[in-house]
Amino acid sequence: MTGPHMSPEEFRRHGHAVVDWIADYWSSLDELPVRSRVAPGEIAAALPDTMPETGEEFDAVLADVQRMILPGITHWQHPRFFAYFPANSSPAAVLGDLLSSGIGAQGMLWATSPALTEVEQVVLDWLAEGLGLPEAFRSGGPGGGVIQDTASTATFTALLAALHRTTDGAARAEGVTSLLRVYGSEEAHSSLHKAVMMSGLGERALHTVPVDPRTRRMDVAALARALEEDVAAGLRPVMVQAAVGTTSTGAVDDVAAIGPLALAHGAWLHVDAAWAGTAAVCPEHRWINEGVAEHADSYVTNPHKWLLTTFDCSAFWVRDSAALRGALSLLPEYLRTPAAESGAVTDLRDWHPQLGRRFRALKLFAVLRTYGRRGLAEHIRAGVAGADRFASLVRSDERFELVTEPVLGLVVFRLRAGDEETRRVMEELNDSGEAYLSHTTVDGSTAMRVAVGGWRTTPEDVERTWRALTSLVPADPR
Ligand SMILES: *Cc1c(COP(=O)(O)O)cnc(C)c1O
Question: Is the CB of 152 under 6 A from ligand 1?
Fold first, then answer.
């Protein structure tokens, strides 16, 4: 090899060093503070102001990752990372991703690398089957799946399809009117709000539906009233989003009750199961998807959260792709291919906002192959068991209380002493580096969230986090 490029032999040597580095990193995580302790600007200040004029050795790059960059990393793969939701990686996913990078293909069209499209369709068919999702989501019929970067993009895409269907294509041709409405609960993820903003509908098009104060599930009677009142006022329901596992408390909306209301008003039903959905790989957790088979027009769940697939990998399915393609397909001359014109293949570029697409399916393929249904279920069960244990510890201590009933791997709780004390204890725990939790507000008061589900988390990590947390709380006066 001549010129500035690494030779295959050099790549082999540095590649081995990188894999060693990653393996050592995973083994050393337990010793590192979970949350990064750097101050704003510290990492940027440690880096040179300009790129080097002549290329350096890769060894220097790796050394700087260790020395200058690692301090600015919050360790999401740490066994005591319990904040937000897990963003699990796994050895298989990393290797699959590396293969994808090495192959370096761009799959915007079937014809630009047939395997990219076909492997993606096959793994999403496997996953749909593995999660007990309806036949209608499988490829080969009107419906099918596509991997999006994130659930946010999937929800935005669902909204574009919904707009196309409910306006008979007018949204695409003429833009949106001020009469269109989108529904989600107060606990819906902010990505719904953002999708409404991005679509040009404007924020006022989002009709926020109240939740049951205890369960935090969408109040279905309130949705019914909202739909009826809006229609009576001359407005047009476009999409209803049901949340299967809200971000704040894990609440699971009643899709079976929401579905018929959406249908009755001609609205698209999108189900956001970004975190919880993958738990359905365990038959005992399939209840979360009750009503999806009958009613959902689209569904999203993130293998990049709980299902061991390195970010980004968001699985999105539609019952019928016609509206999606109607909303998003364009065929400039330079993208015309005989394969697409023959109608025998799918061009997934028509299934999401961007054109280019990398081979994300390969990391999911590697995960599904190497874990198998049983390995995946075992992983989900370990997370649920960890959360059950944590919840029982909360129940057994008078100083604490559960805010909502735990759902799957998520426990939401607080100190009885109130918001300020809840925040203080959480911040001190996070500052200690021992574990990392995040917070939410439920009905106006502050709560801590422990989301168990990390692939390196053991039962002892749950115990240890509880001991660290309780050591920060004054003894119960009674
Ligand atoms: C995490 C989450 C999202 C957003 O996920 P991204 O993939 O980061 O966009 C949306 N909805 C719910 C319920 C989530 O938990």
Answer: yes
